[in-house]
Amino acid sequence: MKTHAQVVVIGGGLVGCSILYHLAKLGWSDVVLLERDELTSGSTWHAAANIHGLHDSTNISRIQHYTMNLYKKLEAETGQGCGVFQPGSLYLAQTPEREHQLRLQAAKARYYGMNFYEVDRAEAEKLHPLANFDGIRCIMFEPDGGNVDPSGVTQAYA
């Protein structure tokens, strides 16, 4: 076993394996992953693994948007299913403050070429017929929102 490495990643969950995957893609070879048990045995195995492309932080939004696009490519590259399921996500505002936040997100999405836009109540009811939209001031839709299988993604990265 090696006693030295240029990079040591601790934890074989989704994040640790993602770091190792991306370092390898950048040409790093002197890297080691340390895991006390087996891959995904920490918090990854029970993570909700929701995916969405927008965040209040612009840098995090860019990373999330990149990652959402990466999952499908990762399946094709590795042959490992990532369980990508993207039925879309609705974002609801009941207060003026939340409405303002969602409108800022929509402006940011347009600027970065992301798919996030306002829908009216009728469209929202078609998208989610079981939801009650009474008292909702603003409804935004992100068609690419959904979730992945965190264990599958981790195995694909590995």
What key attributes describe this structure?
two-stranded parallel sheet, 2 domains, FAD/NAD-bd_sf, FAD/NAD(P)-binding domain, alpha+beta, sarcosine dehydrogenase activity, oxidoreductase, 158 residues, Sarcosine dehydrogenase, elongated
Taking the alpha carbons of the first and last residues, their distance comes to 19 Å
Helix fraction by DSSP (H/I, runs of at least 4): 40-55%
Q: Strand fraction band?
A: 15-25%
Q: Report the sheet with the most strands, covering strand number, pairing sense and barrel closure.
A: 3 strands, antiparallel
Reading off the top of the CATH hierarchy, the class of the largest domain is best stated as Alpha Beta
Secondary-structure element string: EHEEHEHEHEEH
Give the CA-based shape.
elongated
Instruction: Give the strand line-up of the largest sheet.
Output: 4-6-5
Helix count from the secondary structure assignment: 5
Radius of gyration, whole Å: 19 Å
Second-tier CATH architecture of the largest domain = 3-Layer(bba) Sandwich
CATH topology of the largest domain: FAD/NAD(P)-binding domain
Q: Average pLDDT, to the nearest integer?
A: 93
Q: Give start-end ranges of low-pLDDT stretches.
A: none
Total domain modules = 2
Structural class: alpha+beta
The number of E-state strands comes to 7
Name given to the CATH homologous superfamily of the largest domain: FAD/NAD(P)-binding domain
Protein name: Sarcosine dehydrogenase
Keywords: Oxidoreductase
InterPro entries: FAD-dep_OxRdtase, FAD/NAD-bd_sf
Domain FAD dependent oxidoreductase: 7-158
